Amino acid sequence: MKHSFLDKYSNLNSLVHKLNPRTKIISFFIFIIFVITTTQTDFIQFTLYATVILLIILLSKVPLSYIFKRACVIIPFVVLVAVFVPFMNETQDGFRIFWNVLIKSFLAILATIMLSSTTKFPDLLHGFELLKLPKILILILSFMYRYIFVLTDEAGRMERARSSRYFGGEYLRQAKIIGNIIGLLFIRAYERGERVYQSMAARGFDGEIITINKTRFSSRDVYFFAIFAGSLIVIKLLSCIVNRV
Amino acid sequence: MKKVIEIKNLSYAYPDGKTALENISLDIYEGESIGIVGPNGAGKTTLILHLNGILRGNCQLKILDMEMNGKNLKNIRSKVGLVFQNPEDQLFSPTVFEDVSFGPLNMRLPAEEVRKRTEEALAQVEMEGFENKSSHHLSEGEKKRVSIATVFSMKPKVVVLDEPTSNLDPKHRRELIDLLKKFKTTMIIVSHDLEAVLELCERTVLVNKGKIVKDGQTAEIMKNEKLMESNSLECPLSIKYRQNKN
Q1: Best interface-test mutation with B: which of A152, A199, A215 has the largest number of B CBs within 10 A?
Q2: Which domain holds residue A29?
Q3: Domain topology for B3-245
Q4: Measured between beta carbons, which residues in chain A are less than 8 angstroms from residue B56?
Q5: pLDDT higher for A90 or B113?
Q6: A80 touches chain B (CB under 8 A)
Q7: Which residues contact A32 (CB under 8 A, 6 or more apart)?
Q8: ipTM
Q9: pLDDT tens readout for residues A146-177
């Protein structure tokens, strides 16, 4: 089966795509920190940050519909907060908390989507590795990326086999069977892990993870980072000044 | 001729007590192409897993004059390349380059040497230019070829292939067989594809219920209808056809 999923638009050719993964990762974290440290009522600052991220989205040539569809992943969390709003002491406070969560998670998810859709996943992992993320985490993430489609296919095959012999009704029994399928999927994944380990051992793996990855920075990275970080700092400073006054 | 693998009285039982291999003795010489055939559950895969120390039975096992023990294990693994049946198990890295370079990197070779070997290995299996592809974007045939490259980059003295032609369409099967014909290293092929074994291996070992039933010339064994059928196999069609013609 063909899957594209995580890497769908990482093959486009935009300014953002060509940046070094490390530049994008660092810019991402700076953006998140600046957004999180904004007071919830500072609407102007939020608007300016939103403009920055929207500019990047436009530069990246990733389709807007794709981005906003992926952004809907924050809806369950926002709904969860909304459910607890009536339990706040004052409704004013409640709405402010809700707005706080909504705007910050929205801006953060836009930045995350930018990072993940303009960078090929293996390159993203290399970037994190060079930024000193523990190798064991990188290994786990790379296995996840490698095998998620294999597992999806496996689950798909089991589901096909089940529905081919399903003639309607008996929902409770079907639920039990689907539970069995999920358990079986886990067992198969576990056994695959054993076989992959044998494969790794057969090629000399002894516990130490060794890689040779070096991506280079170019002037494009320097300019981008200078402008990006610069604008964020200017926005933050101006807001501080305006609020003092 | 030099012996690359010496097995004397290998016995192995599964953790649940069931016997998998019984008193296997086998000598493999440099440059040979050997086919290992037998019914399902005969112990073929169990046997080859002993060749690089993944399984350890009790016996005398020598690979390239090295005893199979903890000290020699790393060295043996770099000299005996095992290609597993399912490419999904053999290819576990995000990109082809990382999979093929995994072996040489574990051998602690310098970066330049690793890159060179990766390039050479991919060229040998005719997959140049695929370095940055992800394994799940490859076809079955391409995955099989990259699986072989992952082992070739270690420059092994012995290459062991478990069911190399399984799940391949006829065209890719033919390409793989032609590719394997070009290799000059000692090769051990475990396969149900008897025609492929006939084409590639001069010597065949027939295994059944954990024992070696016959060890000899491929053509001789495969012509023997009684032997083949009493071991849940059958004579390859090409031999039957030749016999009928005569």
Answers
A1: A199
A2: 5-128+216-244
A3: Rossmann fold (3.40.50)
A4: none
A5: B113
A6: no
A7: A108, A111
A8: 0.85
A9: 898 888 888 999 989 988 988 888 888 889 98
